Amino acid sequence: MTHTPVEESLFQIIRCYCQYAAREGDVETLSLEELKALLLDNVPRFMESLGRKEPYYVSELFRAADKNKDNQIGFEEFLLVLGRLLTHYHLLYRRQLCASYCTRHSLH
User: Fold this and answer.
1) Under 8 Å CB-to-CB from 12, ≥6 apart: which residues?
2) pLDDT band of 98, cuts 50, 70, 90
3) Which residues are bridge partners to 30 per DSSP?
4) CA 50 – CA 33 distance, rounded (Å)
5) Can you say whether the dihedral through the CA atoms of 72, 76, 80, 85 is positive or negative?
6) Residue 82 burial class via C-beta count within 10 angstroms: exposed 0-12, middle 13-18, buried 19 and up
7) Torsion angles phi and psi, residue 49, rounded to 5
8) How many CB atoms lie within 10 A of CB 89?
9) Which residues contact 73 (CB under 8 A, 6 or more apart)?
10) What is the pLDDT of residues 47-70, one digit of tens each?
11) How far is CA 6 from CA 10, 11, 44, 80, in A?
12) Is this entry keyworded Metal-binding (predicted)?
């Protein structure tokens, strides 16, 4: 049985996390530099469309997700980063849909 597209996406997220976590230090966590590399290498257009390629944005995501304040992001903390990114992108997407609808229906 083949995986659904969403299941395959979830597996890819796990693989990506493990690949970047293994780059330095603890192989089970991401450092700030590993998180920056992961995001900029794997979701560059996503980050750019959010206007979030600035280093402070990734640093803020890192600080907000590092719940135990150990300067490392465990997998559960990484899910918080993804959740925040998806929330920001969802809001952007909804604004674009709304703007497109208003333009098509002359609702400026």
Assistant:
1) none
2) confident
3) 73
4) 20
5) positive
6) middle
7) -65, -30
8) 16
9) 29, 30, 31, 35, 62, 65, 66, 81
10) 887 666 667 888 999 999 999 999
11) 6, 9, 20, 18
12) yes
The two tokens of residue 28 are 């089970």
Encode burial over 24-49: b for 16+ CB neighbours within 10 A, e otherwise.
eeeeebbbbebbbebbeeebeeebee
How does the average pLDDT of the chain come out, rounded? 88
Q: What are phi and psi of 101, to 5 degrees?
A: -60, -45
**Which residue's entry shows tokens 């796990």?**
14
What is the identity of the amino acid at 98? Answer: C
For 84, counting Cβ atoms within 10 Å of its Cβ (0-12 exposed, 13-18 middle, 19+ buried), the class is middle
